[in-house]
Design brief:
The strands form 4 sheets. The protein has a 7-stranded mixed sheet. Strands 5-6-7-8-11-19 form a 6-stranded mixed sheet. A 4-stranded parallel sheet has the order 1-2-3-4. By secondary structure, it is α/β, with parallel strands linked by helices. The protein has helices at residues 45-52, 63-69, 143-146, 179-194, 213-223, 239-242, 322-332, 348-356, 491-495, 584-596; strands at residues 14-16, 28-30, 59-61, 82-84, 91-96, 103-112, 120-126, 129-133, 151-152, 155-156, 159-164, 200-204, 227-228, 245-246, 253-254, 283-290, 304-308, 311-315, 336-339. The model is unreliable at 365-578 (pLDDT under 50). Helices cover 15% and strands 14% of the residues. Helix 6 links the parallel strand 13 and strand 14 (245-246). It binds a DNA duplex through residues 1, 20, 35-37, 44-45, 167-168, 172-173, 205, 207-211, 257, 260-261, 289-293, 316-319, 343-345, 455.
DNA sequence: GCGATCAGGT
DNA sequence: CACACCTGATCGC
């Protein structure tokens, strides 16, 4: 659960995912996704009052998040204040203090977060540097390298702070099977079961929250059916989701839940009480999406665990694993990282300490510090220099070796901005508020975590793994490039915002487009119908266009599951105004020094 | 009566 | 295991 207080140190006039307390005075609001723990205060009377008395405050979010937010009548009052922003389109926003008229510009870019429909990360670029707020995210290894807007030219942008989803940033949650592995296992299980006959139905025991929709969609497409859910109200503005769900109980796949206080679901019953036409008993296979994680050494990655005669737990995670978070941060190498979440059984100090590991080293004792650019494979002296692209300092967490001193980090230039977006240059040093955890005692007391128990080796009797290990089908080595669609639609369909008809962004800096043309989601509701917050029982008769469904067998293109190193951009020599490209000889000399672990400060 | 907070359950 | 959420109890306005 997010405990992010709502504001970032660099841009305190902005509030993100929080709408209470100090955040009541924000000059602009940002909502990363529609989960309640990121919406605190969003409908409080105090906030409504604030909005009414303001002419400028807006809420920025993705187009999908807008639709989901407005799906609840309680949030309809937001409509006139919402400014949906396309993903991956830098947009300049003016943060205006309405009393004084004082204003500050910031450029924001929404990046896909893979957490639930509409979920995004926010990259802010402005006077106080580049900062990234991730909201909640589930990104695969190497995803950061694929995000164009985290780069400037061929290099990673200089990021001052990352406010990161640290839900699973704890070595206990070392690895979580890839999303694709999990979904395809569920698809197979479902297929095997339902193939036994029409009386064999599947019940997905999902929590009440956005995030399972892509599962529904995959199942719907694969089996040309719809998933039974309790009500459609939460999807009413999302036609492409609506087309995979139904309130009609006569379907083989259910994700319904027990209405109220009824608990008589026992045995093999569906929560909706659905029975077969002739009254014969249904055979219900229950599948409970559950986060399952695996320790460092566990190569076994069963994504399905039998938990009863007709019951399975299926691996399913909304959040990135330790490895995925670490990969993400290690790639970006921000100056500082802040935890948005304190993982279970862990203190804020502990997470922060571990997060610090992924930061680039602050040249505290080296005032003459000169950024050198991206160096690959840089190791500390005691460690033999490794080449290849595993340039991650794996801080001795898992290799059984004694904790090493932190090796000098990759260094980078403070990004010269070559892009089209012109955020003003960041001031060099603005004494960071409190980059937690001093480091005098840099004993990585991570040893505590070395012997953490693995999660799932308790797999039961018939632990036949549906899928053996497999992992994301990421062609490693891909350049960061957005994939453009020609493949069958999948995850991205729901998790990236769909293109809006009006794609113009508010670049004028003074007044964001307060009112928008009809959204892409079709179903423009002009005045809200009578759908109440409770049960809607209409059967939306939507055509189930099951056109694409043939990508089921392309399940795995195995990439090594335990190969945590993402594709890296190549070694790059900085092109600072005051430096020139080193000659090959100079480079060779530099490499020699690096290999010996020599001090580089004397280098020239 | 409403909101905020916490405990307990799924 | 957790997640995200709901319900109900309690306290304060």
């Amino acid at each position: 659960m997010s405990s992010f207080p709502g504001r970032m140190k660099e841009y305190p006039y902005i509030s993100l995912d929080r709408f209470d307390h100090e955040n009541l005075h924000a000059r602009a609001y940002f909502l990363s996704h529609c989960h309640k723990d990121h919406m605190r205060g969003i409908k409080a009377p105090k906030l409504k009052r604030r909005l009414r008395s303001s002419r400028r405050v807006k809420l920025y979010c993705s187009p999908v998040t807008k639709e989901l937010l407005l799906s609840s009548r309680k949030h309809l009052f937001w409509e006139e204040f919402i400014v949906p922003l396309e993903l991956e389109s830098p947009t300049q926003i003016s943060l205006v203090d309405e009393a004084s008229g004082e204003s500050e510009e910031v450029v924001v870019t929404l990046l896909p977060a893979g957490h639930c429909p509409g979920s995004v990360m926010f990259l802010f670029e402005g006077r106080h540097g580049n900062v990234l707020y991730t909201g909640d995210f589930r990104l695969a290894l190497g995803d950061a390298a694929r995000m164009e807007h985290l780069h400037s030219g061929s290099r990673v942008k200089d990021i001052r702070s990352v406010y990161v989803d640290s839900t699973f940033f704890d070595p206990r949650f070392y690895q979580i099977p890839s999303r694709e592995a999990c979904v395809s296992a569920i698809l197979r299980l479902a297929g095997d079961w339902m193939a036994r006959g029409a009386l064999h139905v599947l019940w997905l025991n999902c929590k009440a929250a956005y995030g399972y929709e892509y599962l529904f969609a995959r199942l719907g497409r694969e089996f040309n059916t719809r998933v039974h859910v309790n009500n459609l109200q939460m999807f009413r503005r999302m036609p492409e989701i609506l087309s995979y769900v139904t309130t009609e109980r006569q379907t083989q796949i259910h994700a319904c839940r027990h209405p109220k206080g009824e608990k008589y679901l026992r045995g093999n019953r569906l929560p909706c009480g659905c029975r077969s036409r002739d009254g014969a008993d249904l055979r219900v296979l229950s599948v409970k999406p559950t986060t399952m994680w695996f320790g460092e050494r566990m190569r076994k990655t069963d994504v399905l665990i039998k938990s009863g005669s007709d019951a399975f737990r299926a691996c399913f995670s909304f959040h990135s694993s330790y490895c995925e978070v670490k990969d993400f941060l290690s790639y970006l190498r921000p100056a500082r990282v802040f935890a948005n979440v304190v993982p279970m059984g862990c203190t804020l100090a502990e997470v922060t300490r571990m997060l610090q590991t992924t930061c680039r080293k602050r040249p505290r004792d080296d005032p003459a510090y000169k950024p050198l650019g991206l160096l690959k494979g840089r190791r500390a002296a005691p460690t033999p220099p490794r080449d290849g692209q595993s340039d991650d300092d794996d801080d001795g967490l898992f290799d059984g070796s004694p904790p090493k001193k932190k090796p000098p980090q990759r260094r980078r230039l403070p990004d010269e901005r070559g892009g089209r977006t012109p955020p003003p240059p960041a001031p060099e040093e603005d004494s960071p508020p409190q980059p937690v955890a001093g480091d005098a005692d840099r004993e990585e007391r991570t040893a505590n975590f070395l012997d953490c128990t693995e999660s799932n080796d308790d797999s039961e009797e018939d632990g036949r793994s549906e899928e053996d290990e497999q992992s994301e089908g990421d062609e490693s080595g891909t350049k960061w490039r957005r994939r453009t669609g020609s493949e069958p639609p999948k995850w991205e369909d729901f998790f990236a915002a769909e293109p809006l008809p009006d794609s113009q962004k508010s670049l004028d800096g003074q007044s964001p487009p307060g009112r928008r043309a009809p959204e892409a989601s079709g179903e423009r509701e002009d005045d809200v119908d009578d759908i109440d917050d409770v049960d809607v029982d209409d059967d939306f008769s939507l055509s189930l266009s099951a056109s694409a469904s043939n990508h089921s067998s392309q399940n795995r293109e195995a990439a090594e599951a335990d190969e945590p190193t993402p594709p890296r951009l190549d070694f790059d020599i900085p092109c600072t105004p005051d430096s020139k490209r080193p000659s090959p000889e100079q480079l060779t000399a530099l490499y020699r020094k690096l290999a010996r672990g020599d001090d580089l400060s004397s280098a020239d």
